[in-house]
């Protein structure tokens, strides 16, 4: 098998062929899928190996002391031979990976061959194709967690142990100094614990990343920004805890910790930074200085790590292995997100070149993964290779909407009356002939009363059950926060109502299945999702002029989404889904409508440190659509631009203000350009509502087939699956 090694004397890095380790009792043999490069610990070791002998001595005074002791005991010649022999040997690299159990040793009964496990240890979770891992240094990977994310288990445990040493409590404020890999994870763990976090790092990119992952504020420790943020969040008292996650030879971190920590606060050293404690500063505040020992209790204890002797949970709640399992659970539940930390994924065969680029500064990275060819593809496929596109089933004898008399108004109820409902939907309905706004339902009485007063609802209430039980109401609009859409839609369908739900229809595959189960149970498929752009008059006209296609098309859709305001509920990804999950269906639906098909696969990638996405959709006839969803663009640039290319024609849409068509006619070129819209952009809401009301009034087909709504929702969900797995996701149609 192959393994990454280093000669500490010469600094040489190599991928060597070495024997396969035996599967000893008390452990398992694991074939690596992904292993994580520690850009702090490992690069420090790699850099030290490249130093001169004097440089090595200066960087490791602890080892020099051992050498001097050996000289005193054994003499210079013997000590020299011993030291040179040790230096001139290959040593392994790596300590955090995820792989598949290939063989189970005697005494192991908690995993079996084929199970996915996360592994820890600088002697057992190496950058190697196969590793023997003792029982207390691995943990099973929860279902659905991607192997590339599970490979963060060890560094996650290091961060978690540091946080545990700080003993954070709800409502406290913490300062994290150093926003590298460990620091970024500490930020997320503290935020998940109800602690407000300030980050300090000279790198503005890392500061921005930490703020996106949960920090209240971040800044350069040399500037006043960090002190100002701490003062504002603590009313000038100072933070409750400081976590030292920085490296290097500067004493600035411990000095900053003393300056910004409150009286009798806690300072936890997680990294390996200089610790010349300023005595007066620490004494006067009586600061509690604590050290965090790697992954947790059990570390460096041979009886625990090698012999598998666990500590009783009643005496040691969080051991090394329990920390590892806990971190994996947080990853699986979405409480911690490591995907934005992945700067690069390198093939294992390119390990030497990857280390060189990191060491020379060519590659700026928070976290780098090695991908192993022998099993990486299988591991990803096992985790989440497909997203199901459920089939719509309609039993006989279901709900139907009878045609209404011409003068009988269509009676509507609104569940939710937030900004979108009151600005984009209700203004088009309030004065529409043949429509009666019957009831508005909100969770707070005042918002219901405001909507009633402004738009003329006959009634305002907080009682949803009363509305769903009112047989006189023809259709229900669900315009609430994303997390409630699927459940409210399901209940309204079961009540026999025609439903208009704003995007997204669902945030998970289970939620989507629940909606379709309600359709099957009730026979009621009268559903519309608010994908309004296909109804935009300008886009309708442009598509008509483009005409039928004879060959595959290429579509590019740039969405300059911009930054959200601080405090927006769209940022509550833990409950409301990602930003793309909430909005992306608009753009997927528009592309599918223009290409007249549903996608068959989705591939999504995102650069580290921001929310920009590139989503590539593939269609049955070979057509492709690329959606660039970006948040880092200039706010003055138009939000949406679209190009459709096929058969010698190019259709261009400029932010729903102007459209144009270029045609190569063989003997000459033709061009159509729409007139610039005299008023605000029309993105189709009015026409969409007109089509919906017509379907309710006449009992005719819904404006968009339900199977298309389901396919768009499944494709939107597949984006997150693809980001987690790092591979194209097949949209599997149910038969």
UniProtKB/TrEMBL annotation:
Pfam families: ADH_zinc_N (PF00107), GFO_IDH_MocA (PF01408)
Domain of life, source organism: Bacteria
Metal-binding recorded as keyword: yes
Gene3D superfamilies the record matches: Dihydrodipicolinate Reductase, domain 2 (3.30.360.10), Medium-chain alcohol dehydrogenases, catalytic domain (3.90.180.10), NAD(P)-binding Rossmann-like Domain (3.40.50.720)
SUPFAM superfamilies tied to this protein: Glyceraldehyde-3-phosphate dehydrogenase-like, C-terminal domain, GroES-like, NAD(P)-binding Rossmann-fold domains
Chain segments annotated as transmembrane: none
Enoyl reductase (ER) domain residues: 50-367
Keyword annotations: Metal-binding, Oxidoreductase, Zinc
GO molecular function terms attached to this record: metal ion binding; nucleotide binding; oxidoreductase activity
Cofactor(s) in the UniProt record: Zn(2+)
Claim: Zinc is one of the keywords in the record: yes
Family, per entry: Belongs to the zinc-containing alcohol dehydrogenase family.
The protein's name: Zinc-binding dehydrogenase
């Amino acid at each position: 098998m192959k393994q990454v090694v280093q000669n500490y004397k010469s600094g040489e890095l190599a991928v060597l062929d070495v024997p396969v380790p035996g599967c000893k009792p008390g452990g398992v043999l694991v074939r690596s899928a992904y292993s994580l490069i520690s850009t702090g610990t490992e690069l420090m070791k790699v850099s030290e190996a490249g130093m001169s002998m004097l440089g090595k001595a200066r960087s490791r005074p602890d080892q020099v002391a051992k050498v001097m002791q050996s000289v005193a005991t054994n003499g210079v010649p013997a000590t020299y031979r011993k030291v040179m022999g040790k230096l001139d040997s290959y040593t392994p690299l790596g300590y955090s990976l995820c792989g598949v159990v290939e063989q189970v040793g005697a005494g192991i009964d908690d995993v079996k061959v084929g199970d996915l496990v996360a592994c820890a240890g600088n002697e057992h979770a190496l950058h190697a194709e196969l590793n023997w891992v003792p029982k207390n240094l691995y943990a099973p990977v929860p279902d659905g967690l991607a192997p590339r994310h599970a490979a963060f288990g060890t560094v996650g445990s290091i961060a978690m142990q540091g946080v545990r040493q700080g003993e954070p409590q709800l409502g406290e404020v913490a300062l994290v100094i150093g926003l590298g890999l460990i620091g970024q994870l500490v930020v997320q763990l503290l935020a998940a614990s109800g602690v407000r976090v300030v980050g300090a790092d000279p790198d503005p990119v890392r500061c921005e990343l930490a703020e996106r992952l949960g920090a209240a504020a971040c800044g350069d420790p040399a500037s006043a920004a960090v002190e100002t943020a701490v003062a504002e969040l603590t009313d000038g008292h100072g933070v409750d805890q400081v976590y030292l996650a920085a490296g290097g030879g500067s004493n600035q971190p411990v000095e900053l910790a003393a300056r910004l920590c409150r009286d009798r606060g806690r300072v936890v050293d997680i990294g390996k930074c200089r610790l010349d404690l300023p005595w007066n500063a620490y004494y006067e505040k009586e600061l509690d200085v604590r050290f965090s020992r790697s992954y947790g209790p059990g570390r460096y204890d041979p009886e625990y790590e090698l012999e598998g002797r666990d500590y009783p949970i009643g005496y040691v709640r969080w051991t090394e292995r329990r920390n590892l399992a806990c971190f994996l659970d947080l990853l699986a539940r979405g409480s911690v997100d490591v995907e934005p930390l992945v700067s690069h994924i390198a093939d294992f065969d390119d390990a030497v070149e990857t280390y060189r680029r990191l060491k020379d500064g060519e590659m700026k990275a928070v976290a780098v993964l090695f991908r192993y060819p022998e099993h990486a593809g299988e591991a990803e496929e096992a985790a989440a290779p497909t997203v199901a596109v459920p089939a719509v089933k309609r039993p006989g004898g279901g709900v139907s909407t009878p045609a209404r008399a011409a003068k009988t108004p269509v009676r509507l109820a609104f569940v939710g009356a937030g900004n979108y409902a009151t600005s984009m939907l209700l203004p088009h309905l309030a004065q529409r002939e043949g429509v009666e706004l019957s009831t508005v339902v909100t969770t707070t009485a005042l918002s219901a009363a405001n909507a009633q007063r402004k738009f003329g609802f006959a009634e305002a209430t907080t009682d949803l059950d009363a509305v769903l039980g009112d047989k006189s109401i023809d259709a229900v609009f669900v315009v609430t926060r994303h997390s409630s859409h699927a459940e409210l839609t399901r209940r309204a369908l079961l009540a026999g109502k025609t439903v208009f739900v704003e995007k997204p229809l669902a945030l998970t595959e289970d939620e989507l299945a629940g909606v379709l189960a309600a359709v099957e149970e009730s026979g009621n498929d009268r559903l519309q999702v608010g994908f309004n752009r296909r109804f935009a008059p300008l886009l309708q006209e442009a598509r008509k002029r483009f005409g039928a296609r004879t060959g595959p098309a290429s579509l590019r859709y740039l969405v300059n989404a911009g930054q959200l305001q601080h405090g927006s509920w769209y940022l509550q990804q833990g409950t409301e889904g990602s930003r793309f999950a909430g909005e992306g269906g608009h753009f997927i639906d528009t592309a599918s409508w223009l290409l007249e098909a549903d996608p068959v696969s989705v591939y999504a990638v995102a650069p580290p440190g921001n929310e920009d996405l590139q989503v590539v959709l593939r269609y049955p006839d070979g057509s492709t659509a690329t959606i660039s969803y970006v948040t880092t663009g200039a706010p003055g640039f138009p939000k949406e631009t679209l190009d459709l290319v096929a058969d010698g024609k190019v259709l261009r849409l400029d932010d729903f203000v102007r459209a144009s068509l270029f045609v190569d006619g063989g003997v000459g070129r033709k061009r159509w350009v729409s007139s610039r819209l005299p008023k605000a952009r029309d993105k189709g809401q009015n026409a969409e509502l007109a089509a919906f009301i017509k379907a309710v009034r006449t009992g005719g087909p819904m404006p968009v087939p339900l199977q298309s709504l389901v396919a768009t929702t499944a494709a939107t969900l597949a984006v997150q699956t693809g980001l987690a797995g790092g591979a194209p996701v097949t949209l599997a149609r149910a038969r």
